[in-house]
Design brief:
By secondary structure, the chain is an alpha/beta fold. Helices cover 39% and strands 17% of the residues. It folds into 2 domains: 296 residues, Rossmann fold (3-Layer(aba) Sandwich); 110 residues, Dihydrodipicolinate Reductase, domain 2. The longest helix has 21 residues. The protein is globular and about 65 Å long.
Length: 431
């Protein structure tokens, strides 16, 4: 494989400079200043085994394939509020104020571009920093102009885009999403099934810019965008950052399944008080997130193949907006399992996490791995990055992989493939 080196500056563009986006940007600056370490990032701290296990060769991933250095990154983005990144981070109340004060000059310098926004897709948001356009195609062209200006201003060699905006209302794939021609006509005709996130997606992929979707929105998960990505030789990946409760499910459910333990029910509820929680307090937006969360267990457990263990599984998911918690999400899980001779048991999880702290390293890894994919000549859906996502995008007719351990194997073998190293199959005593 002909892998280009990561020369020059990489621009990371973020639609949605709220809690996640600002936590990510501030974190990279803190790492570059030596204030903190890139905890949670495989591109920075992860190692990978090369060759036989007897050789004990486990270099850093970033040294194996050449990951873009963090000091050579420029940040930009769009938001429905005109706060600069420092102001937005202070408002989000995720990071310590003393840390933000240390980073104030760098963060204040990043001001959001006017966003593409339509309140009907996120009813709880009241954005005012918004682009005008006679139709959605004109808005897409305005985004492309923003992108060209950003690239020139910051002297970037390459760009990537990672959606960190809000969850939009639930939209099902329709006729307008089937071909590039229909999608482009839909943009010109202001078709209701083309949400703002898809306008960003179209703009990025049309320009050959790798795109990751960190929300459960339809976004890039439609045939037209997949076709366009192949035409423009652009890597894409979606959807929905795998952070709190779903991360726990994709760790625990594979373990129960591999030990052939049955599950009668899995009840999950969350309390969350940030802007994401406020948006999800609307039933239409919650539906989008619910669909993303509910598919995980069914795909991992395969009840059609293991009816004695999982055919009667009752899976319930709830998200409750609770302002006092801010970004400090709490996820409760009650799991009713059964074992030998059908004897019942229970597992209970109380995961108190910071949503944006878990999401920020995912933004970094997705951006840097997508840039790697682009430099390696890869295009279309990047299934090997499913590791980071709740509802992984997969080719039509193929079930996505949700088991985080299988996802890890796929990710690591793809890195070995890109690097020209031998894939690991775990066959034979040396493996």
């Amino acid at each position: 494989m002909n892998l280009e080196k990561p020369s020059g500056k990489l621009g990371i563009l973020i639609p949605g400079l709220g809690a996640v986006g600002t936590t990510f940007i501030a974190g990279v600056y803190a790492i570059n200043k030596g204030i903190s370490k890139p905890i949670g990032s495989l591109t920075q701290m992860g190692r990978i085994r090369l060759g036989k296990r007897t050789q004990l060769n486990k270099p850093f991933i970033k040294d194996v394939v050449g990951i873009q250095p963090l000091k050579d990154i420029a940040f930009g983005g769009w938001d429905v509020f005109d706060d600069n990144v420092y102001e937005s981070a202070m408002h989000a109340e995720v990071l310590d104020k003393n840390l933000l004060h240390e980073l104030k000059p760098e963060l204040e310098a990043i001001k959001p571009m006017k966003a593409v926004f339509d309140k009907s897709y996120a009813k709880r948001l009241n954005g005012t920093h918004i682009k005008d356009g006679k139709n959605k195609m004109e808005l897409a062209e305005a985004l492309m102009e923003d992108i060209r200006n950003f690239k020139e201003k910051h002297n970037c060699e390459r760009l990537v885009m990672v959606w960190c905006g809000s969850t939009e209302i639930y939209i099902e794939e329709g006729e307008v999403h089937q071909t590039i021609e229909r999608l482009e006509e839909g943009l010109r005709q202001n078709h209701k099934d083309i949400p703002p996130s898809m306008i960003y997606t179209y703009a990025a992929v049309k320009m050959g810019i790798p795109y990751a979707n960190g929300a459960p929105n339809l976004s890039c998960d439609v045939p037209a965008i997949v076709e366009l990505a192949k035409q423009t030789k652009t890597p894409i990946v979606g959807k929905d950052f795998k952070t709190g409760q779903t991360l726990m499910k994709t760790i625990l459910a594979p373990g129960l399944k591999c030990r052939a333990l049955g599950i009668n029910g899995w009840f999950s509820t969350n309390i969350l008080g940030n802007r994401d929680g406020e948006v999800l307090d609307d039933p239409d937006n919650f539906k989008t997130k619910e669909v993303s969360k509910l598919g995980v267990l069914e795909d991992i457990l395969e009840p059609e193949l293991y009816p004695d263990l999982y055919k009667d599984l009752y899976h319930k998911v709830r998200i409750n907006y609770y302002p006092p918690r801010g970004d400090n999400k709490e996820g409760w899980d009650n799991i009713d399992i059964f074992g030998w001779l059908n004897y019942p048991m229970q597992i209970k999880i109380d995961f108190l996490c910071k949503d944006s702290i878990l999401a920020a390293p995912l933004v970094l890894d997705l951006a840097l791995f997508l840039d790697l994919a682009k430099r390696a000549g890869m295009s279309g859906i990047q299934e090997w990055l499913s590791f980071y996502l709740k509802s992984p995008q997969a080719p039509k007719g193929v079930k996505p992989i949700h088991d985080i351990f299988k996802q890890q194997i796929k990710l690591e073998n793809t890195i070995r493939y890109i690097a020209g190293e031998e894939l690991i199959t775990h066959l034979g005593q040396d493996y």
